[in-house]
Amino acid sequence: MIHADWRRPEDYVYTEKLEAGQWAWEFLRRNREYQQDWQWFHECWQVLETAYGKPPERDFQRWKKDPRAYRKMEGADDDCQVTQDSVLIECWMGAKWGFYKFPLNPSIEQPCIGEQLSWRELEESVHEVKGAGSPYLDGYAGRIALGFDLELPLRRQFETAKRFLQMRKARLRREGTLTLQSVGRHRERWTLMLRLLDGLQAGEEPCEMYARLGQEIPDGAETTLLTEAEAMVNGGYREILRLPDHHKL
To answer: Contact 37/89 with Cβ under 8 angstroms?
Structure first.
């Protein structure tokens, strides 16, 4: 389903223009489980359309009564209408893989985000820091813990914290100790990951791919790049959606 040749860097020039949502898709479409799910979904959808028609003639009332139009889903999902622990198969696909809209064929390249593909918003987590030795801090210059008094009104505390964080961020940038994350900053590394994934799909051995890519791989990344790529395919792609396409203050 992936038509790029990992040996040819020119086959990946398109990544220079990808935005965050499209990058996330590049990794998801290389997930074998997603490919299998989509094939199952596509075949099931064709069977349903044969039985009940395509828009605008589709008999949706009969469609909704067909058990083949549903799939069991563990746990509640606020974005899907649940009927006896089951949801419509298109909603099941979206809930599992993190998007809205109609499930995309993995062969589709550079989908229009917001039209062909809409990602579900990621829940933001709150880190409760207990002591300076918290793993959340762990020497990261870009992370900080602030204290709030829950016995007092929070609004002024939030405003004060915001000003403090803005000033601290500006100072760290001046000192050169803060690296602002963006899609553009990761593009070259992610492109190498895609090439490695495509090479694996083509049956290549990792050592052969590393040898061929040679100087394109950053020093010390030989043993981690493929592991990172596989982690990105297996759910890590959703974290890309947190990143701005360009540096933001």
So the answer is: no
Q: Position 130: which residue type?
A: K
Task: List Cα–Cα distances, 66 to 47, 48, 74, 130, in angstroms.
Answer: 11, 8, 20, 52
**How far from 14 is each of 6, 8, 39, 116, 117, CA to CA, in Å?**
13, 12, 26, 18, 18
What are the C-alpha distances in Å from 218 to residues 106, 191, 208? Answer: 29, 13, 16
Among 172, 209, 217, 244, CA closest to 23: 244
Nearest to 246 by CA among 178, 179, 184: 184
In the 3-class helix/strand/coil scheme, how is 48-64 assigned residue by residue?
HHHHHCCCCCCCHHHHC
pLDDT in tens, 151-207: 999 999 999 999 999 999 999 989 988 888 899 999 999 999 999 999 999 999 988
CA distances from 207 to 78, 212, 215 (A): 45, 9, 14
Measure Cα distances from 182 to 170, 241, 244 in Å: 17, 10, 5
C-alpha radius of gyration, the chain, whole number: 23
User: What letter represents residue 38's amino acid?
Assistant: W
Q: Are 73 and 92 in contact (CB under 8 A)?
A: yes
Instruction: Classify strands 70-72 and 99-100 as parallel, antiparallel or unpaired.
Output: unpaired
Q: For 77-92, what is each residue's pLDDT tens digit?
A: 667 777 778 999 999 9
Contact yes or no for 32/4 (Cβ under 8 A) = no
- The whole model's pTM is what? 0.88
